[in-house]
């Protein structure tokens, strides 16, 4: 299962899609803009296994903010939203206020619609992300993808009920392993974040997401089998939230 994948952005997306249908149980295909969501849904149709959601990636907020209204209306018909969020790292901080406006609008809309499952980017911005989520009870379920902020913010997110999606590339860094060790075991799912995430220079594939179990087992101090079982049962619960809870 892969709960955060930019499947449409692999160079050979159609082939990866066909292979993913065979080799995975579930892929959450997150898009980076409302127009990309519309185009991707035509080329790579949603199926029982491949869930596609509209998003507006904070890294391109300055270029795509004109599509915000389109995203809000796409949210009517889709129970998942992503990739959305905030990025306050040096490279993207000049548009942080614009990103905040977009993300707030999305979270408020999710609450108005009775709840949505959000796949959230929070690089150097987890505190602001959590402020916005906490101010909008009823927004649904937050899945913080590839969390890189501080341990104290991770604990705050866990207390707020957030889920976490973790991939093999995140577990390559000491900081990633330290954070994963602190996550609530019943709210962690696997992700690839491919093709952005790479291992030794090669794109992580959707069917490789679950290989994260091996590294999680080390930091959680339980067996690989137990870890896989935990990820599996968490994944099934999140699929239910995505496909039943808010529809
Ligand atoms: Zn992503």
From TrEMBL:
The family database entries (InterPro entries) matched by this protein are listed as: Metal_Hydrolase, QatD, TatD-like
PANTHER family in the record: D-AMINOACYL-TRNA DEACYLASE (PTHR46124:SF2)
Superkingdom of origin organism: Bacteria
Which SUPFAM superfamilies has this protein been placed in?
Answer: Metallo-dependent hydrolases (SSF51556)
Q: What is this protein called?
A: TatD family deoxyribonuclease
List, alphabetically, the Pfam families matched.
Answer: TatD_DNase (PF01026)
């Amino acid at each position: 299962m892969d709960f955060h994948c930019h499947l449409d952005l692999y160079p050979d997306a159609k082939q990866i899609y066909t292979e993913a249908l065979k080799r995975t149980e579930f892929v959450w295909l997150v898009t980076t803009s409302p127009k990309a969501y519309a185009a991707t849904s035509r080329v790579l149709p949603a199926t029982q296994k491949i869930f596609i959601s509209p998003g507006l990636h904070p890294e391109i907020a300055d270029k795509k903010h004109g599509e915000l209204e389109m995203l809000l209306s796409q949210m009517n018909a889709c129970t998942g939203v992503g990739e959305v969020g905030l990025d306050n790292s040096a490279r993207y901080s000049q548009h942080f206020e614009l990103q905040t406006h977009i993300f707030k609008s999305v979270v408020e809309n999710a609450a108005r619609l009775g709840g949505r499952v959000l796949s959230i980017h929070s690089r150097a911005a987890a505190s602001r992300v959590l402020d916005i989520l906490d101010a909008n009870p009823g927004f649904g379920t937050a899945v913080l993808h590839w969390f890189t902020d501080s341990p104290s913010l991770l604990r705050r997110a866990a207390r707020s009920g957030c889920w976490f999606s973790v991939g093999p590339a995140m577990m390559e860094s000491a900081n990633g392993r330290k954070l994963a060790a602190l996550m609530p075991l019943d709210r962690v799912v696997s992700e690839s974040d491919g093709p952005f995430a790479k291992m030794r220079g090669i794109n992580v594939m959707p069917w490789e997401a679950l290989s994260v179990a091996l590294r999680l087992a080390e930091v959680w101090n339980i067996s690989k089998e137990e870890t896989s079982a935990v990820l599996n049962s968490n994944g099934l619960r999140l699929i239910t939230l995505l496909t039943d809870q808010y529809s």
